[in-house]
Amino acid sequence: MFAHHKLGDALFKLERYREAVKAYSRAIELNPDFAWGYYKLGDVLVKLQDWKRAVEVYRQLMQIQPDFSHEVEEKLNQALHQQVKVRLNQALSHYLQAIKNDPMDVESYKKALEIKPDGPDLYFRLGNDSVAKGEVEKANEAFLQVIEILPEKYESIHQLIRKINEKKTNKKPEVKADENSNVSMQENIEKSQPISADSHDFDWPEISAEEWQNYYNHGNKLQLEGKLEKATIAYYQAVLINPHHSWSYHNLGDTHLKLGNWQEAITTYQKAIKLNPDYFWSNYSLGVAYSNSKQWRLAVKLYRRSIKLNPGLNLPFFALKETLK
After folding, report:
1. For residue 111, with 0-12 CB atoms within 10 Å meaning exposed, 13-18 middle and 19 or more buried, which class applies?
2. Percent of the chain scored above 70 by pLDDT?
3. In the chain, what is the greatest distance between 2 CA atoms, to the nearest angstrom?
4. What's the rounded Cα separation, in Å, for the pair 106 and 137?
5. By mean pLDDT, which of 31-35, 95-99, 184-188, 234-238 is the weakest?
6. Among residues 288, 318, 322, which one has the least CA distance to residue 302?
7. Which domains does the chain have, with CATH numbers?
8. What DSSP assignment string belongs to 82-104?
9. What are the tens digits of pLDDT across the range 178-187?
């Protein structure tokens, strides 16, 4: 048994990993309770990126000798993370192929974005295809996500959003927008000159305080009436016009939280806190969103911050106590 184990060590040093796997496996066959054999076998499987087998081996080691080393649990967690990552990448490739086969397959976009929520290209394509289907509200949401991920593209994407909404407002029912053009919106953006804050090439409409407040107030009304999907659209319209109002983001986060859209709630509350870091409700609500998505450490951090900002509020104390159980 020791001879096979020593052979495995020698092969490992020579980076002959597949042969090392055979040697360590043989050592374990001869002595199924030999903890070091499992430990070394797990390490060589990690080198081969055979995450599934590495997870199995580290778990066997923890069963045989739970107190072997604190590193084993860490190695197991890393292997599990990589195993999940591989599966997600495989699933993402599947959905990307489905989108390539059918660009109008919205469900594939949603599934792909669940796996890769920070993919601006996916959001842009979803927005582009939503416009083609006449779903302007969905397009607005998708393009807003592009701005969240790539804030440096704010000017060009915001220009695109306004043009889309203007076309929706001004379009006659019997005429299709852009029916004589075969050029996609993405090509239009790529061909257009970049727009800067000082550019005179684009006439930015004057932002009316009444305009964005109307959307914001309408969102509040819809939320009170329980019409949460419609409320999210109203809040999105408010932040499109005025992206500097923290309450619009906070209330948008509330609607996502009520709808069970944890990741959207997290992103939106983060934006609200960025604009108003010391508002205790936004910090508490972000903690709730983290709790619901099982991100316990981040939830604890936000609950504690909320308590610090407003020690008289009881909810964060109760939430913190439940989370720490």
Report:
1. middle
2. 75
3. 83
4. 14
5. 184-188
6. 288
7. 2-85 (1.25.40.10), 102-169 (1.25.40.10), 242-324 (1.25.40.10)
8. HHHHHHHHHHHHHHHHHHHH-TT
9. 433 333 333 3
